[in-house]
Amino acid sequence: MTANYHSHTTRCHHASGTQREFVEKAIEAGFKKFGFSDHTPYPYNNGYVSSIRMLPEELEGYVKETLDLKQEYKDDIDIKLGLEVEYYPKHFEDLMKLCEQYPIEYFLLAQHHTDNEYDGTYVGFETDDEEVLKKYCAQINEALDTGRFLYLAHPDLVNFVGDKTVYERYMRQLCKDVKAHNIPIEINFLGIWDHRNYPKRDFWRIAGEEKMDTVLGIDAHRVDKIWLPDCEEYAMKIVRENDLNLITEIL
Asked: In CATH, which of 3.40.30.10, 3.40.50.300, 3.20.20.140, 3.20.20.70 is domain 3-246?
């Protein structure tokens, strides 16, 4: 693994370690490219304040620190400036206007909630409600139609525990929709080491059958989780078993 585009900072309120420590650990681990993609701020216009992302006024500092490190370590590693974005239809265009002020290099699509976070459902909770699965997939497809995203992170985060034939139908269509937009999907290391409901075996079987392009993403929230050879081995087993098309560098 020579490139990672999925990493966070303390601004999201659930990560630890300085950005400099992340960069130095990435260099030690042999990465040639390392992207910061902290949880995007959202300019909510209804007074809602999220506890899992930076505030809009923190974006400037995030950009400046990342660009300063990019320049400082330019001879050692190629640092990329990105954001992990959820598609919230009521506020997405306002977010894009905010981001246009800065030299953001890429957006990762990572849908954790349906609707707009404050009025939706967290999809990582177990559910047998087909409507949650349906809305999750529809919202991702709507996001893809914007053409803004580099890849889809942890597509299998949605924790549907209902009828397996229902899950297969929606996930197969999701894979087809992503493929039609010509972007990869991510095998997520945080899900591996933290023993979450993803990576999900059934999803990656479907992804293999649909011949999906795939990337590996560390989803680093801690310095000690940047170099994870056991997780890489586990992810590569998923790639091999399902004959996935692995893309090692995108930017």
From this structure: 3.20.20.140
